[in-house]
Amino acid sequence: MPHHPLLSEREETALLKDIAEALNEATDISQAMAAILPRLSQVLGLTTAWAFRFDSHRATFVELGASGLPPALAARDAAALKSSWCECQDRLVNGRLDTAVNIVRCSRLRDARGERAGLKFHASIPMRMNGEPLGILNVAASGARVFTRPALDLLRAIGYHVAVTIDRAAILSDMRQRAAQVEALSGILGDLTGIMHRRELLERAVTLLSDRLGYEAAALLEEGVVVFHVEKARDAMDAGYSYRDVSSEPPDVEPPRILEDALSGLTQAIPRRSLAIRLESRSPRAFSSSDQDLLSAYVWHLAALLDQVDWYHESVASARWSERRELAADLHDSINQRLFSAQLIASALRRQIRDPAGQVLAERLEAVIGDSQQEMKTLVHTLRAESQNLSQALRHRLIRLHQALDGDIRWDIPDLPDTLPPAQIGAVLHIVDEALQNALKHAPGSPIEVRMELEAAAVVIRIRDFGPGFNPALMAANTGHGLATMRERAVLHRIHLAIDTNVGDGTTVRLIIPRDERRSMSRVWIK
């Protein structure tokens, strides 16, 4: 490097003031490099400057800014500065870069292919704020001479000003990123609005989260099991400008994993559901508190959309039940009454006919009309069955089962004031039917107790048998005992379903129907 005389104190003060004013206008690292390079070129003959911003949370270099790079360093979006290990980065991370120094064994300059404009060495200046590393400022000039101590001291003073700019740029960058994420989140929620199929909504939500917010892998978990996931190819992700091989990092990921080589993960439960959204990355410490806040907001919005889907299907189901009730009323008021009148006419006709053969035909006609009338009553009863409240419907179910089967079934079903959506009542009855059939099949001869209670926030139904019970581990591993169907109905209609059992202890099936639907959750568990 050409020799330059030291600046006088007045000249140095003026230079630092000029640089500080120029840096005050910079909003990113590249602008900062462009601001200092022409001023240092006049004093130190510098031709090139570049800086790395260090993210202490992720322990990696996340941003590069440069000015005056020769072709060998500028090629392919400055790829030579963004890959592999280098001495100056290693020194900063390991606490061995405390002041401005000459780097005479720069691996990046050595390995760069192409025109290097005479660059052989560079000076590295650490940038710190409150003792924390912010990054590295590197400057270089053509030639074989290294920077003198006075030149390094001047660069160190300039490094303090650049550090303030880098810190401000990092804050602005985080603010811009957060604003972009919020805007993307708003767009995702807009695209999800209007989807009225639960599975489609959830899978679309996971896919858009990864695509538009740039997460490496995203998944939907149900009861802690991955049921849907998306991931980006490794070469599609920007791994940052890491100073070391991250494969040596211990993984901070709890099972189940989406990526086999994941090093960090973030999971957030969807409120009122047995569902969760999971994010993973192949980079260590990839998720910050900002990501946590964003994902938390996202799952709350997703929970609201799921509520809309549920309410939509409940309204459709309620409309269908209303149609069924209207049809039942019409059948009862019109056709059933006509059949009754026809039966009276047939009876009168039978009494007036003297011919034996005619009487037989009249009796057959009367019997056919009577059978049709009974079938009509059964149809009307079926159409109206689900319009009862839960207590009435459950008692009716138990009475019919007790009369039809040879079993010891006992129940305590009080009249409860709560009214539930017809579809939810239907789901409860189907689950109770399945539980009773299981008890009769797997605990023959054992008494069966059915109790319903009203608790502070829920209606609780317990179906208990005193049979042999079973191993819950085996139960969780298969779909026997109708558990799969029971689980599906419970999740779909926001009912808690719990099965408490063990070998020799009998089995208790508990249904918990939250009274406040907005705070309900769908869960299934076995103990």
UniProtKB/TrEMBL annotation:
Entry GO CC: membrane
GO molecular function: phosphorelay sensor kinase activity; protein dimerization activity
Gene3D superfamilies, per database record: 3.30.450.40, Histidine kinase-like ATPase, C-terminal domain (3.30.565.10)
Catalytic function, reaction form: ATP + protein L-histidine = ADP + protein N-phospho-L-histidine
Organism: Sulfobacillus harzensis
Name of the protein this chain belongs to: histidine kinase
InterPro entries, per the entry: GAF, GAF-like_dom_sf, HATPase_C_sf, HATPase_dom, His_kinase_dom, Sensor_HK_TwoCompSys, Sig_transdc_His_kin_sub3_dim/P
Keyword Transferase: yes
Annotated ranges, domain Histidine kinase: 326-517
Alphabetic keyword roster: Kinase, Transferase, Two-component regulatory system
